[in-house]
Design goal:
The complex is a heterodimer of chains A (108) and B (122). With 108 residues, chain A is mainly beta. Chain A contains no helices and 9 strands. In chain A, strands 1, 3, 4, 7, 8 and 9 form a 6-stranded mixed β-sheet that branches. Chain A is globular, with a radius of gyration of 13 Å. The relative contact order of chain A is 0.33. Helix content of chain B is 0%, strand content 52%. Chain B has no helices and 11 strands. In chain B, strands 2, 4, 5, 6, 9, 10 and 11 form a 7-stranded mixed β-sheet that branches. Chain B has a 4-stranded antiparallel β-sheet with strand order 1-3-8-7, with no helix packed on it. The chains are: A mainly beta (108), B mainly beta (122). Chains A and B meet through β3, β7 and β8 of A and β5 and β10 of B.
Chain lengths: 108, 122
């Protein structure tokens, strides 16, 4: 079966840049989305269509793609950015949606 | 303002049936896909499926096809997730989410409900 691979954890100090990757063979042909989830809360969309930010999401959040790996970058990380981040995409058909395993961002 | 209000927590026994709901407001219900995402507490997100209220077209993930039923009642802008026979492994938080499917595929959830905790235990 098709999988999306994320690093389990990323740690950065406040003010530094955090990069969270998402890898999958179909990513060159499929769109990727990113969600932020804090403890006890529903996921929040923070990036869509690879590089677009929804209204209200700080400019510190950005996205890029390079073949089979897509990266979400958070510049000038703040304590409030500490959360689990999930990438989401589809298999090659575009019909079957799946999530990556999630990355816990820790702000030291 | 888009809002998704989900039904409350449920405690059920294995073999019980259950239907949980998600009432949408703040947008034209029949013009957006709406679906369900599962999360076992402490674990990751699992996409279950979506339905288009306009014509009731439904898409399920392969792992949930045949295990649950997603439906809508357009008259009350409400989506449902239903089980006929629950198992302990169905214990999870279930989120409903309004979905957008650019170009018909590559769907994603732009607004999410707060989640409904379903506990299945004997």
């Amino acid at each position: 079966s098709y999988d999306l691979t994320q690093p389990p954890s990323v740690s950065v100090s406040p003010g530094q840049t955090a990069s969270i990757t998402c890898s999958g063979d179909a990513l060159p042909r499929r769109l990727v989305y990113w969600y932020q989830q804090k403890p006890g809360q529903a996921p929040l969309l923070v990036m869509y269509k690879d590089t677009e930010r929804p209204s209200g999401i700080p400019e510190r959040f950005s996205g890029s793609d390079s073949g089979t790996t897509v990266t979400m970058t958070i510049s000038g990380v703040q304590a409030d950015d500490e959360a689990d981040y999930y990438c989401q995409s589809s298999d090659i058909s575009g019909k079957n949606v799946l999530f990556g395993g999630g990355t816990r961002l820790t702000v030291l | 303002e888009v809002q998704l209000v989900q039904s409350g927590a449920e405690v059920k026994k294995p073999g019980d049936s259950l239907r949980i709901s998600c009432k949408a407001s703040g947008y034209l219900f029949h013009t957006y896909w709406i679906g369900w995402v599962r999360q076992v507490p402490g674990k990751g997100l699992q996409w279950m499926g979506i339905i288009y209220p306009g014509d009731s077209e439904t898409r399920y993930s392969p792992s949930h096809q045949g295990q649950v039923t997603i439906s809508v009642d357009r008259s009350i802008s409400t989506a449902y997730l239903q089980w006929t026979s629950l198992r302990a492994s169905d214990t999870a938080i279930y989120y409903c989410a309004r979905h957008i499917c650019p170009y018909g595929d590559d769907c994603y959830g732009d607004y999410w409900g707060p989640g409904s905790l379903v506990t299945v235990s004997s």
